[in-house]
Fold this protein.
Amino acid sequence: MIKKYRKKPIIIYASQWSGDFDPFINDFSDYALYVSRRIKLKDKKLIIETLEGVMTADISDWIIIGVNGELYPCKDDIFKKTYDKVEEEK
């Protein structure tokens, strides 16, 4: 039987790929070395080593660091339906 489920409210880190590699990698600050070892640039696409294998990301896709430190791309329309921005506490 199919039942309804709600995604748990977890906080992830993400940055939207604009096509400019160095500032994009620097967006991840504390994760920059980790991310730079798993993401390569080829023809304006990001080639990402994920837990499921190699995936690509186009400009405007979001790159997410998941709850277990894994990387994966997400299309902009799906990202906007799934995530809300968390305001930093002051």
Remarks:
- The chain is about 25% helix and 30% strand.
